[in-house]
Every structure is written in structure tokens, then in C-alpha cells.
Amino acid sequence: MSKEKQQVSRRQFLNYSLMGVGGFMAAGLLVSPIRMAIDPVLKKTAAGDYANAGISVDDITTEPQRVDWTIEQVDGWYQSKPSKTAWVYKDDNDEIVALSPICTHLGCVVSWEGNDQYPDQFFCPCHGGRYEKDGTNIPGTPPLAPLAVYEQKVENGILFLGNAISRKGA
Ligand code: FES
């Protein structure tokens, strides 16, 4: 076994030391911008959050009424306040029903009794889609699935709505 010693010159030692310190400082400088660039993407979304729909439970009747509210939305670096809409009423069991107004055919907006020919139904003006009061699509009209239903909860007598849950295939 050879007993050759690897000699490191003073100049090499200085170079290695400066490279190490320089690399450490460069890494430190890069961490902050990289974290700022990635952080919004990694943040949890507000999915599952409920927003105040702006209506008291006492004001909800058996007649569907349109309710509009806005939510705070953060999408990566972009913040917005999109508006949301629901058709809200109490069913025969006094349970609150909150339906999405988005037609399941091609996404137009439905209205309660939107056509005089079809009382007690939701009507979509785009292609004549129709739904029963509970949001069930009426056979023979374009939509092939019921209206989505909002998640809901009541706090201090006020209705809060969450995500609209699709009932396709239900
Ligand atoms: S989008 Fe509603 S019927 Fe076509």
C-alpha cells in the first residue's frame, strides 16, 4: 500500500474554501425567490369552504328564489371575487334545497318558471331544457342530468353555501 500523501496547496485550499462559501451563499439567495414562485401553487385551495349566501333561513320559502353572493378566490397568484348563484327553497320536509342554476346540457343559466308554458319547472332558454322543482331533468329535453346541489350549512340562522355537487349518474 502506497503511503503517498495528497498534498493540498495553500492556493487549492483557498479555492475550495471560496467555492464552498460562494455556493452556500448562492443557495441562500435562490431559496427565497424559488419559494415565492412555487408557494401560491402549493397553497391549499378554499375548496370545501362555505360562504355566506346572504339570506336568512326564515326568508326561505317553498318557492324557489334566486340568491346571489360572491366568494374570495385565489388561483395561484390571481385573486378574484367571482359571483355565485343558487336557486333556494324549502321542500315538503322543511329541508333547504340549494340548486345550481347551471344547465347540465351546455352550461346556460336556468330560471324558475322561466317559460310561461312550463309552470313549476326550471327552464333553460338556450335549447329548451327543463327540470322539475327538485332539479331532476325532464326526459325528452336536452339535459341528461339533474342540476347540481350546493353543499350547505346554517349558522346563526344564515344560510352558507359551499361547492355545487354534480348529480350526474345519480
Ligand atoms: S344549455 Fe340548457 S338546454 Fe342546452
Write the CATH homologous superfamily of the domain at 51-165.
Answer: Rieske [2Fe-2S] iron-sulphur domain
Given as residue ranges, the uncertain stretches (5+ residues, pLDDT < 50) are none
The outline comes out as elongated
Annotation, overall tally of beta strands: 11
Strand order of the largest sheet: 1-11-10
Helix count from the secondary structure assignment:
1
CATH architecture of the domain at 51-165: 3-layer Sandwich
Summarize model confidence as the mean pLDDT: 88
Percent of residues in β-strands: 25-35%
- What is the CATH top level name of the domain at 51-165? Mainly Beta
Summing up helix and strand content along with how strands pair, one would put the structural category as: alpha+beta
Please characterize this protein's 3D structure.
With 170 residues, the protein is α+β, with helices and mostly antiparallel strands. It has a domain of 115 residues: Rieske Iron-sulfur Protein. It contains 1 helix and 11 strands. The strands form 4 sheets. The chain has a 3-stranded antiparallel β-sheet, with no helix packed on it. The chain has a 3-stranded antiparallel β-sheet with strand order 2-5-6, with no helix packed on it. A 3-stranded antiparallel β-sheet has the order 7-8-9, with no helix packed on it. The radius of gyration is 30 Å and the shape is elongated. The site of FE2/S2 (inorganic) cluster has 11 residues, from loops. Belongs to the Rieske iron-sulfur protein family. Its cofactor is [2Fe-2S] cluster. One of its GO terms (cellular component) is membrane. GO terms for molecular function: 2 iron, 2 sulfur cluster binding; metal ion binding; monooxygenase activity; oxidoreductase activity, acting on paired donors, with incorporation or reduction of molecular oxygen. The main subunits of the menaquinol:cytochrome c complex are a Rieske-type iron-sulfur protein (QcrA), a cytochrome b (QcrB) and a cytochrome c (QcrC).
